[in-house]
Give the backbone structure.
Amino acid sequence: MIRRAILPGVTALAFLFLFAPVLIVVLASFNAGAALSFPPHAFTTRWYTMIKPSFFDALTVSLIVASIATVVATLVGTPGALALARGRFPGREAVNAACLSPLMVPALVTGIALFQFSVIFWDISGLTLGGTIAGLVLGHLTFTIPFVVRAVLAAHARFDAALEEAAQNLGATPLQTFRWVTLPILQPGVVSGAIFAFVMSLDDVPIALFMGGGSATTLPVKIFTTVEFDFGGDIMAVAGLVVGASIVLMLVFDRLIGLEQFFGARQ
Amino acid sequence: MAEVRLENLGKTFGDFVAVRNLDLVLRPGEFVTLLGASGSGKTTCLRMVAGFVPPSAGRIVIDGRDVTALPAYRRNTGMVFQSYALFPHQTVAANVAFGLAVRGLPRAEIERRTNEALRLVHLEPLAERYPSQLSGGQKQRVALARAVVIRPAVLLLDEPLAALDLKLREELQIEIKRIQATLAITTLFVTHDQGEALSLSDRVAVMREGSVAQVDTPANLYERPNSRYVANFVGRTNLIAVVVRAREGDEHHVVEACDGSQRRFVVLGPQPSRFAVGERCLLAARPEHLVLGDDHPNRIAARLGAVTYRGSTTLVEIEGRGGEVLALIARSGELLPARGAEVTASWRPDQCFLLKLEDDAVA
């Protein structure tokens, strides 16, 4: 009797442990008393009305940066992955390693390096990268491209080369083969890489911390700095909104497309 | 219906010569099989015709057109792969229609011809299924339909039945032969299974180390192999070391066994090569042409060896004086002497032939 309750019990505890911080934050956002007082005193929604507009500006910046970084990463990463998988060109191993390394270097180190690079770049060209959307996108490309490349490579490893031969044998030119056979079959890999890249970009703090600033401040960085200097109930409300939006998006996505289908587990 | 000519075809991968000086002509509508062991170059040859491997030498002419420099997608060949290579993201119907869609044919015609092809392979009810929902045999039939629907000049099959079990293989062999005969498409088939080659083909080209050892009809290949290699590759052959003692023209040879028994045999009929008096060579006879007893003129004394029951027939092995092991087929139920007993085996002079002694190892 007790033995059968162990697995579900441990699972429940694990979930509780994982979601407790989120739950607390959401609860706190409705707390009429001082932020972070637990248990909550009274229920209120006023914090949600007190969210400063600058947060929404930061959200816009985050979305723009994530979108551009993801699109560029997909356009560059997909053919790049194919070149790595099939090509035999000098420096191939170096490019391969370069695609893996950003994921192994701590983001903070990358952020500092990028900052230094932006200073040198300004020295040389007079163009500012720091504190601009372009600079943020550039910084995020250091990890979005590897994510897409690795995801496409993984999908390609399962790809049967005979399929392309069959397509060509039936009269399809290499370009037609790519469009009608290769790409559709690799699509789950491309999509999962792109989604991952998008989420990681939205989530990033270290790189955005160094490359952003002023009007180019992303939402996580804004939250981070506000928590440090200007802590209040409205921050909880922001967090609550982020959690709510994530859940809604997941549900909508699943309903519209089906998460499993989208990530490639057909029928 | 196109003639296919392979002229002096060769392919080298680095140091390895996969195909050398290969000449072969496929007549329009003919079913030709490349039969050989792994590494004999048969698949490389097929892939050169398909356009996936550029030849190192020679040329390929399809229907009078030199296609050697043409990429695969311009050759109008239809290929059936061993792994089926069906597009997993498309339905059966879309797979079959792929070649037609690429050619930009009008929708109505694509539909008509797709249905026709599916009917030909008896797969119409499965048109909307995906490849992952099909069995191996069904997948291969879809692959076949997809290859023939574009009406290719030549149909290429790369060991298409190797991945299937025996029953299914035999079923599909009949299917393939039927479809090929119905559509009269020139066909090049690759296999290592000699039974398959003999039953399906109009002609078989036995390949050895990159070149054709012998190309002939299945019957001629079996009855009149031109070398020890082919004789051993196609069916089982008994070989006895002999030396030519007398000759009358090209179709009458008298040979003497080299085992010291001074036993003489008469060999009648056309021979694959010329044999001079005094030349050492091999006397070859198929197991089914040997009988126990001295009914026939060519006789040999031996001891009875292993007996293997094979259903309707029994394989009997006997050991000759020279140490050679001969096999003969007896009807099951026939009374056989005990193992080790002295027996006589005999055969007709026109049911054996001579082969050159070769230094290389046998197939």
In short: The helical segments of chain B are 42-50, 92-102, 107-120, 136-148, 166-183, 194-200, 218-223, 228-233. The CA atoms of residues 5 and 25 of chain B lie 5 Å apart. The first helix of chain B runs from residue 42 to 50. The longest strand of chain B covers residues 298-310.
